[in-house]
Amino acid sequence: MKNLRKKKRNADLKNQKKKFSGFGAGGGNRYAKEIKDEDIVEIKDVIGYAGDVTIMAQVFGTEEISHRNGTSQYRLKLTDYSDSIILRLFGNGPNAKFQNKRRTELIESVKGIKKGQWLKVQGTVSNDPYLRDTIIEPKLLELVSKEEKKITIREEKELN
Fold this sequence. Notes:
There is one protein chain. The chain is of the alpha+beta class. The chain has helices at residues 2-18, 43-46, 101-111, 153-159; strands at residues 51-66, 72-79, 84-90, 118-128, 133-144. A five-stranded mixed barrel has the order 1-2-3-5-4. It is globular. Residues 13-32 have low confidence and may be disordered.
């Protein structure tokens, strides 16, 4: 009887670990892997770097580009107020052979992102010769809420 309870408890713990909150559900990540705050670096430190990084930034521009062959490209302009970077994601093409479930989920979450939202992004940084800029291609995305400091009238008068 005790063994049965122990097995059931272990199974429940495993199921709890597998559960994660979805992208729009207030702070979970997309693929059940958590983006750690200790790994976050400033964007100014990644410019000119090539490799995997984790950043936290605010979206200040979104763009969707449709190509003639049916594919699309998504670009988000991100800033953490130390510098800015472009998040680039290529969409799945019309050919079903090359469809990728993870990429499709990532595209759906990128489509829902709006200007002013904060993101944690884990991805690969590289230099794009076409854009002539440093870009990040995401592997994980997490929508986060960041408290912005509100300046009261009294503080504004003190600043002036």
